[in-house]
Amino acid sequence: MVTPALLLTVMFGTGLDHPREPGTTVKIVETADGFGLQRNGVPFFVKGAGAQRDLSTLAKSGGNSVRTWGTDQKTGAFLDRCQAVGLTVTVGFWLNKSHEFDYASPVKLAQQKEEILGWVKKYKNHPAVLMWAIGNEMELGASPQNSARIWKHIDEIARAVKAEDKNRHPVISVVADMWDQKMDDILTYAPNLDALGVNSYGGLPTLAGRMERWKKPYFVTEFQLPNPTDGKGEPYGLPKEPTSTEKAATCEEHYRTGILAHPGRVLGSYVFYWDRSGNQTASWYNMHLKTGEALESVERMTQLWTGKLPRNRAPQITSAEWTNFAGAVKVVDPDGDPLSLQLEIVNEDKPRFEGDFEKDLGVEVRQKVASSFTFPKNLKPGRYRAYILVRDGKGAAAVANHVFKVEP
Description:
Elements: H1 4-9, E1 26-31, E2 34-39, E3 42-43, E4 46-49, H2 55-60, E5 65-67, H3 75-85, E6 88-93, H4 106-123, E7 129-136, H5 144-165, E8 171-176, H6 180-189, E9 195-199, H7 207-210, E10 218-223, H8 244-260, E11 266-271, H9 296-306, E12 316-323, E13 326-332, E14 340-347, E15 353-354, E16 357-358, E17 365-369, E18 372-374, E19 382-391, E20 397-406
Parallel strand pairs: 4-5, 4-11, 5-6, 6-7, 7-8, 8-9, 9-10, 10-11
Antiparallel strand pairs: 1-2, 2-3, 12-13, 13-18, 14-17, 14-19, 15-16, 19-20
């Protein structure tokens, strides 16, 4: 789901790289029960997330890995930060999409391969490295001819990475879900991949069936809840967004049915997206508010990873009722903490999403409210989304939202 724009933001701190002796060996092993991942000979099931900032919180919540979508000179510092808190890293290499890159050009292909090999040589001995991931959803939009070229190129890179790294870390490629033609191309043109990474959202509960032809293991490299719709058929042409409580329930269901239910085939996953929003107060995928509070999906993943609930639990929205210019929510806190409610209203006449990520549309209204509230009457004509944010004052929160329109 990550675009080049996010690639610039999912970056990696500051600092210098240091030469290191080989620190870890990660292998995929096959047993009578299927496949497993071993790190320095110890079984390792990936409990990961897409994250760049809240790394210590992820580790304390039971996470053991993060993935990146690209590399640069700051990747070494990011690996250092992960190592310091006990996280491993699936290091991603961004591959250009076919509409912006000539996959028929031997010169271009050689340059892209050599750039990736340079990063492998630079970071292969870092003890935080878990796997190498060649590309992310680079196959989307490719013609059949370019698809074949892309997968041949990926296979060539995979062979070169294994030779440079002496097969000490698995090499995968990350795709956007799975369907028959894509599987045909991978099986035909990319035999040297050790495993696949699959980003799967609404399709995750049925992904295992579509992966049956893939006889190697795979990782679910992005998941949480179904993607937003394009808004067609929804009020005012805007996607209807679940509450944070509904999102958490879906996240848990998808993890159980799409990941835990397939031992020996699925070797772990990366929930998307752990960090707080950098733009709006709340967004479709982010598991923390911009102000840092954890939403209920964090709680669910903590329990799934550790078997224990966090000490401070998130507020829950049990119902949200809306009229065009008013709302009422019922909220509970499992710990009995006093809750504060805040209303935020955002103008949605500008596109909310750029690729898969929200743009900062600005906040028209921000005010404290009770559990029943009305919207201000001085808004300019247009379409709006009203957020109700519930905070427990101890680092956890809940969110619901509603779209409405102010007529001229």
